[in-house]
Amino acid sequence: MLSGGIYLFYNPVWIPIDLKLIKKVLVTDYDHFSSHGFFHHKKDSLSENLFQKEGDEWKVLRSHLSPTFTPSKLKNMYATLYKFGHRMEERISDSCKKGQPLNIRDTTTSYLITVIASCFFGIESKSLDDPNSDFKHYGKLIAQSRPLRFLVESLVNWDLLAHLGYSFFPWAVRPFFTSLIKDVVDEREKNSIIRKDCLDTLYQMSKNGGPLTFQDVVATSTFLYAAGYETSSSTLSYLMYELAKNQDVQDKLRSEILSICKDNAELTYEDLSKMKYADLCLAEILRCYPALAQLPRACTKEYRIPGTDQVIEKGTTILIPVWAIQNDPEYFRNPTMFDPENMSPENQNSNVEDAWFAFGYGPRLCLGYKFAQMEIKVALVKYLKNHRYKLNIATPEELTFNYDTIVLYPAEDIILDIEAIN
Ligand code: HEM
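== Cytochrome P450 ==
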């Protein structure tokens, strides 16, 4: 079972390469690798979120949060999400009428922030209309590059860091989200409002001696906000970029949308499952540009690599090389091309299902992946139904990446020219 390793400064990093071994790490032998390995500490309250927590605390939180993402809960969120999709379409039409190109990341981010704020926290964010909204500002702060922080976290003892007042996220993030969430919760308490959304679930867990503190509620809400829009916004931006470059794929996707929304009918929640070509496009874009280019894990219990004498010690960092595997010709035909047919069942060899890790795998699988698919499909309908996109002269034929952020971001703005179709 092939695997390798590198040193990050003084710290050894194990890199499993064999797909069977990767599955063992992520699923079968999960109890040896149950942590993401990111800095977290009780003294740095925002770091105590679902992604960074480990062990029983993670298990309890995950089991309570999972029911917020069931199909019936998603269906309840659909109307809100669609409403903001509609507002995004108005903004696109506006730019088109004025003959202005569209900044895709900006438009996409505004839509997604508004959706997450409303669906999960019941907050009406003004992001769609206001380019300088607080939500956007703090979202950008969370996403900003962090090579120095990674260096500090991997070299210095975490207790010492926490003692020195170290914070995983930039300092200004904590007071903003703490007061925001406190205001929403107070308002709900005062007016006996029960919304049964994520915030409600988390807050109920903090009442009457429940397993969470109020700071835990703030931490996981903040993480959900960041995880919910950063990953989806980069994915949707890459997809619009590739659709502008590949007009045949754009036409085919638009035909599917128009055949579902016949005679200008509005897209319903039930229609989402009919968008089969959109599913292929989404899977393919996440193959080409996985939001997490490597899946992180930390060894939580000593592990002997099966069939060898090699032992991975507790505390070792593990990186699953998602980008490299998803771009490997051994598993995918034409791996360097964006081609949704790469993901169609006829073109996949029998290994392919195991070589796609864009939402992670095993017990730590992305909690919001169905929500992400829903918000991206709605956005695609709103983008493509009445408008065509081409690369603007300011947008390069080959994108480069910001390598120092957690989520794989394009370094350039993605600017597209728009044309009305009808
Ligand atoms: C295209 C969009 C998205 C992508 C590509 C994505 C990808 C991922 C990946 C790769 C992981 C790590 C999984 C692992 O370690 O095995 C993850 C974790 C997570 N994601 Fe997503 N995600 C997306 C959207 C969302 C959304 C919309 C939400 C919720 C609002 C969300 C919530 C989470 C949470 C809570 C975790 C941590 C799960 C845990 O540790 O138990 N994600 N996501």
